[in-house]
Structures are given as structure tokens and as C-alpha cells.
Amino acid sequence: MKVAVVMGSISDLPVVEPTIDTLKKFGISVEAHVMSAHRTPDKAHDFAVSAKENGIDVIIAAAGKAAHLAGVLAAYTILPVIGLPIKSSTMDGLDSLLSTVQMPPGIPVATVAINGGENAALLAIQILSLKYQDLEPKLTEYKANMAKKVNEADEKFQKELKLK
Amino acid sequence: MKVAVVMGSISDLPVVEPTIDTLKKFGISVEAHVMSAHRTPDKAHDFAVSAKENGIDVIIAAAGKAAHLAGVLAAYTILPVIGLPIKSSTMDGLDSLLSTVQMPPGIPVATVAINGGENAALLAIQILSLKYQDLEPKLTEYKANMAKKVNEADEKFQKELKLK
Amino acid sequence: MKVAVVMGSISDLPVVEPTIDTLKKFGISVEAHVMSAHRTPDKAHDFAVSAKENGIDVIIAAAGKAAHLAGVLAAYTILPVIGLPIKSSTMDGLDSLLSTVQMPPGIPVATVAINGGENAALLAIQILSLKYQDLEPKLTEYKANMAKKVNEADEKFQKELKLK
Amino acid sequence: MKVAVVMGSISDLPVVEPTIDTLKKFGISVEAHVMSAHRTPDKAHDFAVSAKENGIDVIIAAAGKAAHLAGVLAAYTILPVIGLPIKSSTMDGLDSLLSTVQMPPGIPVATVAINGGENAALLAIQILSLKYQDLEPKLTEYKANMAKKVNEADEKFQKELKLK
Amino acid sequence: MKVAVVMGSISDLPVVEPTIDTLKKFGISVEAHVMSAHRTPDKAHDFAVSAKENGIDVIIAAAGKAAHLAGVLAAYTILPVIGLPIKSSTMDGLDSLLSTVQMPPGIPVATVAINGGENAALLAIQILSLKYQDLEPKLTEYKANMAKKVNEADEKFQKELKLK
Amino acid sequence: MKVAVVMGSISDLPVVEPTIDTLKKFGISVEAHVMSAHRTPDKAHDFAVSAKENGIDVIIAAAGKAAHLAGVLAAYTILPVIGLPIKSSTMDGLDSLLSTVQMPPGIPVATVAINGGENAALLAIQILSLKYQDLEPKLTEYKANMAKKVNEADEKFQKELKLK
Amino acid sequence: MKVAVVMGSISDLPVVEPTIDTLKKFGISVEAHVMSAHRTPDKAHDFAVSAKENGIDVIIAAAGKAAHLAGVLAAYTILPVIGLPIKSSTMDGLDSLLSTVQMPPGIPVATVAINGGENAALLAIQILSLKYQDLEPKLTEYKANMAKKVNEADEKFQKELKLK
Amino acid sequence: MKVAVVMGSISDLPVVEPTIDTLKKFGISVEAHVMSAHRTPDKAHDFAVSAKENGIDVIIAAAGKAAHLAGVLAAYTILPVIGLPIKSSTMDGLDSLLSTVQMPPGIPVATVAINGGENAALLAIQILSLKYQDLEPKLTEYKANMAKKVNEADEKFQKELKLK
Q1: What's the distance, CA A68 to chain centroid?
Q2: How far apart are CA E52 and CA F135, in angstroms?
Q3: What does the alpha-carbon distance between residue E2 and residue E19 come to, in Å, rounded to a whole number?
Q4: Residue B127 is inside which H or E element, if any?
Q5: DSSP state of B31
Q6: Among H84, H97, H131, H135, which would you mutate to test the G interface (most chain G Cβ atoms within 10 Å of its Cβ)?
Q7: Nearest chain E Cα to D46, which residue?
């Protein structure tokens, strides 16, 4: 099982790093590339066209501003493409979000929150877990851990409240 | 392979119908429900908690305004949840979109375009096709058909241009 | 009389602290919790379902991004739920505001300003003062104090103006 | 127990009618007025200043555009004021919403959804039910009825699905 | 000739200072106050009702968030009221702008740019110059000075360009 | 006393008609023109440059989309310029509003609500009333009439309420 | 001299028709195609790559929603690409505008107004007129005609004003 | 071949500098001016009216807030005018963008991204390359260089990935 993480510019890396790290924590093979729908369109084309035969299961595409990367890749593949809108302009990410999510009928992009690097990975893992069922207990554990952290924060907070 | 299509209100049906129809065209078993994160929260809880053991692979949740349905279901399951924001308020669907897509870290919702009923189905099919590989040629054919329709529209348009 | 203050994440505490402090200044018993509609949905459910019998009069729910917490709690209780949208995303709090206020018919959330921690408390106190009438003179005094502060700022400003 | 429903213009009546009807269905005494923060400011002032001694428990203020009515009334009373933003301009109600909800510290307005007439009433009833406990079973029944309607819509929909 | 400059909070002073300074440079008598439509509504009422007989010609009202001050004053006077929206919330001033400018028919507020303190003064001066004609040459000189500054910046820039 | 009402396109007339009618009701001499900052820039220039010597006291400029008309006229005159943003694009008037109100320091435009034709006239009248004091009782009467209409609507509404 | 007009869907034709008509009125050879960046990406690629050698001088690309067409074509050619955002979604064209105009450094798209079909043509003609100088008098005449129409509308309006 | 770069205020220089530098790198003669549509309207008029006879091929106009500069220049010339919206207000550049791009029929402005200084230059160069064909290989080389930089960033990133 393999996920490709593609970013439109190396400056998107701080948002994409949690994506890569989360995928690796789940033991998923990760391929990551810098490629641009606008500056290296042929590379994007070649990547998307051959993604499936290269063993990629899911593509995560991170881009900002007029964020075409996810949509352009989705045009060339039947693999699920997850769009990760990056806040990289002066528009607070609204341009990236709308450019990514408002896809026309026929070519969906599974869009997550602006700068939602970790969630892009988790969505890919949920998708993969349909096929690779050993991911399921890991996802269940991940959810339990999240709940645990919230509960621990609450417990610590209760103590602070009492001391006040 | 089974997809559950859930809508927050029966008034969402016109947007959801193309979702159901597209899934059926691909030969996918569809379960569809009206249930509300706010008005029938227990039903939503019970549905999400047991979705996996009921054989559901992917959940599509359509809702409008402060659209919590997709996020609430995603909280209770590790299945991939696709959010379909409905334009049902006076805010042109921006409220539905932001309520669906801006999920906090840990609980992703795979969001498609506002009123993008067909795309919600296609995304589910792309996800399923990782596991059920006989969907792949159908997706490829679907893409080819779309291209064909665009090309036919172009051909017809070229003739009209000449007649002008 | 008791108000429960619930926040979706411990990182919301700086906005929530003035809520807790204001309630305490009015002599109101406060219960405060970290719980998430998405990461600890069962805890949220259990809290809401039993809030009334646990002696809670009003619930204040603070959350950001796709802020479902107030709506989810309101689904499970007939107590008044005050929604406090937190600016915790890149969207300037617009996502939190719309996710909180645009509730569908049947399940209202009494929404205050983005990051309006103090106002969430005051609204709760106004609600409580219908039943607990000894709060009324305190509210009247609070209003008088606010006016006094504005007037003092004005007096100081008048002196500075004259010195100019 | 009495709720005052105030609208800035008689043209707001279609949104306000469900507010009045819902309150009456719960057996609550309703006082309704047309008054404007801008065109009849003295009337608004006099109303707010004497609302409490006139036996009013909660005020619902509906207004559109630069919607100052709820805030102006809240300035003059310690009663809870519910703001109902009306979509009456070309701005899709965003101006009404922000003018109503973004109140400065000290003077909260409990804001419901744009054009959310029914929810304004329900919020008032939830607030009243703290003091008037015979409203509680009615609210519980109201919630049950809503759930029932969703379930009936679902049942009808299931039958239609099977016939397809 | 006298202009009153009113601000909703002393924290608005940095935006209001250029207003006061510009008015004074033109030799206009300035009255400045801190008063709030919400926290000191009676003071605002009394000020507006008596503004005309106190010799005030124009009122400038600066406020942020749900900025009701200009509209509330305009309700009580026939003097021209200039609204100066302050960026004091997390909404980039859009809430202040819409709350100030979107006034209903009958009660106009002459709105200037968000944080446009200098322009509020200049607009007041333009209005006064209809009646007090000795302001006209000063306004003409002010415009000439602005043009001169732009031209000087251009000349300096041309030299830098040549040195490059 | 004379007001010039200028519109960027004859299609703006429905919004501008109440402006002209209101001015005439107050006995004010009105000059009205169709002229465009973009299509007839010389005409706009000539108009603005000579407005003052042509006896014009106040200019009202109505325009939509990238609405430059008010700002362009203001650049060429020291008369007060009132900007009336027209909803003439697909952007709900937000483009017209921002293009009109967000003027840079030095050149204010007194902006009224989107499509606020009547308010543009009333603002001009308030400005004129500083100099032409016989307008004052008319403005006071206008305000009284508005209040009367609101009160009559209220009285009619009270009767309907009782009949219910 | 030749301009290619490309639209993402035949449903964009009503906006694109004035583009084609305006170009033809100026005697410019027009090639028009329906092609989609998402549904016929190879066709879009082939078109852009060979546009220059096919004698095309300027490309106009019309698309709506997540409007990638102009950006994708611009990636493959050094010809100037004019982006024409279409209002084809529920978002009032804001998604189309931001997806078209917010291009990253290196690949500009010359964006015109939402649904600005005529302006897309005029911009292409202005660009062509640098090289094909016989277009210049036609552009000058076009501008004169526009001014004439505004002036005629004004004259007609002046007569109506007098009759009133 | 000559491009004029005009900015509304010297404070826009940081955005405009990459424009000038990019044009110079391509060997294009650059004229640059500070001039304001509002503070030096005559200068702007004179510049635009004589731009063509002064040998200018393309005009780039940078301005912020209610950004009228590009539109005003376009009104007076048939040269292509490129609008560069500057983020200089509190509105994140949305005001500058809409004021620049939403031009009415007849007077297009070729708008690039907010703060897109480099793209404004590149668009001008693409336009010039139609007439001055020796720019073509330079544009092709520029695109190749951009691709090279993306590829180098990718290669460096691949090495870092392996070391992890």
C-alpha cells in the first residue's frame, strides 16, 4: 500500500510534513514529490497517468492560491485524489479552498481543511483501510489516543480549576 | 460493496438523487437514509457506530446550513466519510461548505463541491475501486464517456459556428 | 444555579477563561470541561444527556473551525446552549461563526461574537436572572460599572485633549 | 411568562410569524411590536427600559441590513435579548448577521440563524423553561415530534427507494 | 463651526487621532468624546439629541465590531453623521463596515473606509466648506499638497531608478 | 441650492430615481446626468472640475461593479461626493461597495448602503441643511413621518394580532 | 491574426457568445472550442502546446467553479491567456474568479470580470493591436461609440427629466 | 519596446520592484512612475492620453484599497492595461482585487493575482512577444528555468526524504 504526497511548491512542506509523518506512523509507504500543475505540467501529467501502475493507491495533492494541482491530477487518473488547500496567499486560504473543492461534475477531489495536513493523511488511511484491513485496529487505536489526550487535558484542567 | 447515503433532511433529496443514481449505475449497493445530527442524534449515532459491521464501506453525508452531519458520523466510525454540502440557506452554501470541510485534526471529512451530488458518488466509487477492482474499467469508461460528451458538444458547436 | 462551560480543545482556554471568571464573579457555580464533539463524542453525548439532572441550568460551548460542539450538545438537551465561536483557523473565525449560528429549525444555539468569552458568561447570567432574581441587581451594577468605566475613560481623555 | 417579539419593519413579518406561532403553541403570552432602532428610537428606548416591569421575560428582536435593533434594546435592559437577523438586503443576510452577533464585551445578543424565526422562539422557550418548569415536557415532546417527522420522512423515502 | 468626534471605546483612539488632528489643522473647533451605543446609551442619546443646539455641525462616529454608534446617533439628529468603521474584531473590519454602511432607508450614515480616520475629517471639512467658505482655499491647498507629495515621491523614485 | 446626481449607466436609473424624487420633494434643484468614469472620462472630468462654479453643492455618484465614478469625481473637486454603490454585478454589490468606500487617505467618498437611493438624497439634504436652514424643519418633519408610518404599521399589526 | 476562444462546457456559451461576436466585428479570425481541463485534459494539453504553431495569437479561456482551464492552458504556452470567470456555481462566481486570477508566480492569467465576455474580446483586441496596427482606429472608434451611446442615453434622459 | 509601470503610492514599491526587475531581465525598456488616480488625477490623465505616442506598448498599474488607477488609465488609452491589485488595506486585498477586475463592459483591465508583481511583468512580456519575437525564446527559457527550479527542489527533497 502506497500513498503519493505531492506539493505544488517546496514552500508547502511545513503543512505537508505532518501528512508524511502520519502516513509513516501507520506503516504506509510514502512517495513524496514537488511538482507544479503550472510550472512542471508535464511532470504532473506523467505522474498522474502512471500513478496507478506505479502502485500508488491514493494521491494527496497540496497547493495554494489558484490551487489547480489536485484537480489536474484527478483529471488523469481514476485513483482517489485528496486535495489539501494551503494558506499561501493573502486571501486566508479561501482561494485555495474554493479552487480545490468546487470541482465540476465528473472529477471529484476529496478536500480537507485549509492547512489540514494531518487530516489528509488520516483520510488516505481510512480509504486504504477498506482494502488493507490491518489498518483498522491502528485507526481505532488512533481515535482512542485522541480521546485519551482530550481526557487527559480535561483531567489536568480540572485540577487547575480546583486550585483556583 | 455498499455505500450509505445519508441526508439531513428530505428536502436535500434533489441534490442527493444523482448520488444514488450514479452509485446504482456502477452496480453498487446503496443504503439511503434521512437522519439528522440535530433532530435524530441517536439514530445518527447508532447508524455510524454500526455502519462497518453492517457492511458499509463508505458513508456519504449531505447536509446544509450549520452542516454537522458528516462530522458527527465521522466521529463515530473509521470508515471514510464524504461530506456533501447542500445550498439550503441564504448564505449560498458557504456555511454548509465551511461547516463540513474545516474539520479539526483527527477527524477528516472528504468534502466535495456545494451541491456536488454526482461527485460525491464518483469519489465513493474511486475509493471502492481500490478494493473492488472490477470498478476500475467502469470508472475508465465513465471518464471516456464524459470526454466523448464534451467532444460531441464541441463538434456540434463547430458546425453551428460555420453556419453563422 | 450552575453553568457548564465546555471547550472543544484545551487550546481554547484563553478565550474561555474570561467566561469562567465572569460567571464566578457573579457567584455562579461553574463546571468546566474539555470535550470534543469529534474526538470524544461519547463524552459529549453523556454530558449533554445528563446535564439537566446534574443540576446544570445553562451550557456554554466554545469551539473553532467546523464548530459542531454547541449544536451537538443542543441536540441532546432542552437546556439553553450558548455557542461561543473561537477564532482557531485561518478563516478569521468565519467558519466557527457560521458552523455555530446557522442551526437548522428545531435546535437553536444562542450564538455570541467570535471570541466573545465575557459575553457568553453575561448571556448565561441574564438567562439565569429570570429564575434567580438576586442576580438582577448584580447585572444592573455590572452595567453601571461598564458605563462608569467608559465615562472615566472619557474624563481622562477630555483632560488630555485640553493639554494638547 | 411573556415574550416580546419586536421587528424593525412590518416587512419582516413573514420571518417573524413562525416565531409568534411557535411561542403561542407553547402557551406563552406574546407581545409583538413593529419598532425601529433608527426610525422610532424613542419607542425602542421606552420599550426596552420598561420591558422588565411590564412583565416581559425575554425579548426577541428581528432586523435586517445594519441590524441595530437587538443591540440597542440590549443596551437598555438586563433581560436576555435574542437577535434574529433578517435577510432583507442584497448581502444575503451577512450584514444582518454580523451587525447582530458581533456585539462588544458587556452587551451580549443571543443570535440565531439568518431568517431563523422558529429557532428564535424555541430559544426563548428553552430560556423560560428554566423558570417555568411546565414548559419542559412540552420541549421534550417538541423534540420527539421533530425526530418523529424525520423518521416518517425516512420511512416514506425507504418505500420509494424500494419501488425504484 | 464645530465637529464632534465620538468613539465607542478609548481603544479606538489611534484611528481617531488623525481625525482630530486634521480637523484642528483646518482651524475647526473639535469636541471629542468616548461614548458607547451599548454601554452608555443614555449619554449617546443625550449627546445626539442636543448636538445641534450645542453648535455642532457634523458628527463623526467611530466604532468597531457590531458598530451601532453612528446609526444610533443618526437616529436622534438631523445633523450629518459620518461613520468611521474601526477594525477592532477578528473579521478584518468587515463587520464594522457593514454595520455602519448598510443603514435602512431614512437614516443615512456617510461611511468612509475602514480605519479611514483622516478621510472622516476631510469629509466633515468638505461638508462644512459649503457653509464656511473660508475652508475652500484650505481644501484646495490640501489637495495641492497631496499632489505635491506624490510628485516629490515620484521625483525621488526617478533618481533611484536612474542610479540602478 | 443644487445637487447633482450622476449615474454610470442608464441601467442604474431604478436605484437613482428615488434619489431624484426625494431631493425634489425637499424643493432642491436637481441636475442629473448619465456619465461614466470609464466610457466618458472627459465628460466626468469636465463635470467635476466645473461643478462648483456651476452652483452645485453636493454630488451624488451612483455606479456598480468596479465603481470608480464617485472616487474619480472626488479627485477633481472639493465638493462633498456621496457614493451610491449599485448592485449591478453577480457579486451582490460587494464589489461596488468596496470600490466606493475603501478610498485612500485624502479623497473621501461619503458612502451609503448598496442600492440606498433614498439615503443618498437624505444625506445630501442633511449636508445642505447646514447652510440652507429652511431644510431643517423639513428634515424634522420627514423623520416624524417615518416614525408615524412605523407606528401606523404597528397599530395595524396590533389589530391583526388581536383578531388571530 | 487569430484568437482562440475556449470554454470548459457548452453551458458557458451564453457568456462566450459576446466574446466571439466582438472579435468578429473587429475582423479577427476566431477559433472556438469546447474543451475541459478536467474532462478532456489531453485535448486541452494538445491545443495549448500547438496553439502558437497553429497561428493563434491570444487564447481566451472561459470556465466556472474551480476554474482551472485558463491556468492549465497557460502552463503549456507562452501565448497570453485571458481568463474569463463564469458564474456557474452557487458561489456567485467568487470561486471562478479566485481560481482564475490567483495564479502563482511564473504563470500569469489576464483575468477579466466575472461573466465579462465582451471585455475578454476587447482585451484580446488591445493586445493584438500592438502588432496589427490597423486595429487601432477600430478600437478608437469603438471607444468613441461607447461614449456616444452614454451621451445619447444622457440626452434622452435629460428630455425625460424635463417632462417630469 | 517599452512598458510603463505605474503605482498609486510609493508604499507600493515592494510589490512593484519584482515587476520592474523582471521586465529589465528580459531587456525591456521600463518607465516607472508614482501617480495616483485620486491625488494626481491630471498627471494620470496626461500620462494615459500620451502613453501611446510616448512609445509605451503596455501599461502596468498597481494600486490598493479602492484601486481605481488601472481602470482610470484604461479609460484614456487603447493600450492594454494590466491591473496589479495591492494588499494595502485591512481587507486582505479583496477590495483591491474587486476594484480592479470587475470592470464594466467596454474597458477591460487584465488583472493578475493580489501582490502578483512578477506575474504582471510576465504577462506584459507575453503580450509584447506577439510583436517582438525575440522575446519568445527568452520566455521559453524562463519557463524551462522555473521547471528546473521545481525539479531541483524536488531532487533535494528526495535526498532529505531518504535520510529521514
Answers
A1: 15
A2: 14
A3: 13
A4: helix B117-131
A5: E
A6: H131
A7: E42
User: Cα torsion at E147, E150, E155, E161 (round to 10°)?
Assistant: -150
**Cβ–Cβ < 8 Å for F23, F52:** no
Q: Is D63:D39 a contact under the CB 8 Å cutoff?
A: no
Whole-prediction pTM value?
0.97
Per-residue pLDDT tens over the stretch F18-53: 999 999 999 999 999 999 999 999 999 999 999 999
Contact: D66, E103; criterion CB under 8 Å: yes
Inspect the interface and report whether the beta carbons of E34 and C154 lie closer than 8 Å.
yes
- Alpha-carbon distance F122 to E46, whole Å? 23
The Cα angle at residue G59 between residues H103 and G42, in degrees rounded to 5: 130
Distance CA F39, CA F27 (A): 32
Q: Whole-number mean pLDDT of chain D?
A: 97
Burial class (CB in 10 A: 0-12, 13-18, 19+), H141: exposed
- Give dist(CA B19, CA B13) in Å, integer: 10
Residue A164 scores a pLDDT above 80? no
Question: Distance between CA D130 and CA D146 in Å, rounded?
Answer: 21
Model confidence pLDDT, tens digit, residues D9-61 = 999 999 999 999 999 999 999 999 999 999 999 999 999 999 999 999 999 99
- Which of H39, H65, H104 minimises the CB distance to F102? H65
A 79-138 residues inside an 8 A Cβ radius of C: 87, 92-94, 113-115
| Residue spans of chain C under pLDDT 70 | none
Residue the block writes with cell 443644487:
F2
- pLDDT reading at F59 higher than 90: yes
Give the 3-state secondary structure of residue F115: coil
In total, the C-beta contacts within 8 angstroms joining chain A to chain B are 113
Q: Check whether E164 has a pLDDT greater than 80.
A: no
Enumerate the residues of chain E whose CB falls inside 8 A of the CB of residue F21: none
Q: Assess whether chains F and E touch, using the rule of 3 or more C-beta pairs within 8 angstroms.
A: yes
**3-class SS of residue C58:** strand
pLDDT of residue G88: 87
Cβ-based burial of F70 (10 A; exposed 0-12, middle 13-18, buried ≥19): buried
The verdict on a CB contact (< 8 Å) between B35 and D154 is yes
Q: Distance, in angstroms, between F106 CA and closest chain E CA?
A: 6
The mean pLDDT of chain H is 97
Of the listed ranges C46-60, C87-101, D137-151, F95-109, the one predicted with least confidence: C87-101
Sign of CA dihedral B32, B38, B41, B45: positive
Mean pLDDT of chain G: 97
Partner residues linked to A83 by β-bridges:
A61, A111
Angle at alpha carbon of residue D34, lines to D33 and D37, rounded to 5°: 115
Ranges in chain G, pLDDT < 50: none
Other Cβ atoms within 10 Å of E138 Cβ, number: 16
Residue A130, Cβ density class (10 Å: 0-12 exposed, 13-18 middle, ≥19 buried): buried
Q: CA–CA separation, F129 vs F138, rounded Å?
A: 9
What was the pLDDT predicted at D163? 81
Distance from the Cα of G58 to chain H's closest Cα (Å) equals 9
Question: Quick check: F150 and D32 CB within 8 A?
Answer: no
Mutate to test the interface with E, among D34, D36, D92, D98 (most CBs of E within 10 A): D98
C103 interaction partners in chain D (CB closer than 8 Å): 112-113, 116, 119
Instruction: State the Cα–Cα distance between residues G36 and C32, nearest whole angstrom.
Output: 54
Task: Quote the pLDDT of residue D92.
Answer: 87
**Closest chain H CA to residue A39:** H147
The helix-helix angle for F117-131 and F135-163 (nearest 10°) equals 140
Q: What distance in Å separates the CA atoms of residue E56 and residue E58, rounded to the nearest whole number?
A: 6
Is the pLDDT assigned to residue D122 strictly greater than 80?
Answer: yes
